[in-house]
Design a protein that fits this description.
With 113 residues, the chain is of the alpha+beta class. Helices cover 20% and strands 22% of the residues. The protein has a 5-stranded antiparallel sheet with strand order 1-2-3-5-4, covered by helices on one side. Strand 2 and strand 3 form a beta hairpin.
């Protein structure tokens, strides 16, 4: 598959992996928007949040739990962090593979768009 996240998951493209298990992988963003910017991605190619079936929705809880653990490990859970899931072109989704952004390490803007 030509999806860049699928290529990182398969090891065809290197990534700075910070978590991996049977369902989810997490790696540092190559174009970070904050000192800590980690992408949390299901291993299964799921294009967008809007495409998830009822059976696939549980992956969001798993991704959220990993975000919580990574925030603790990165030392940002006490001060605060942001979780973002963009959906579709107008929602700012650049890569058509469901992913969650974990952002922190500085005061984040109140701006949401």
């Amino acid at each position: 598959m030509s999806c860049i996240f699928c290529q990182i998951i398969s090891g065809k493209i290197p990534g700075e992996i910070v978590h991996q298990d049977d369902e989810v992988i997490a790696f540092r963003d190559i174009n970070p928007r904050a000192p800590i910017h980690i992408l949390i991605v299901p291993r299964k190619h799921l294009a967008a949040l809007s495409d998830l079936t009822e059976e696939e929705l549980s992956i969001l809880g798993k991704m959220g739990g990993i975000a919580k653990k990574l925030a603790e490990r990165e030392g940002i859970s006490e001060r605060g962090y942001r979780i973002v899931v963009n959906c579709g072109a107008e929602g700012g989704q650049v890569v058509p593979h469901l992913h969650m952004h974990l952002l922190g390490g500085r005061q984040l803007s109140d701006e949401m768009g």
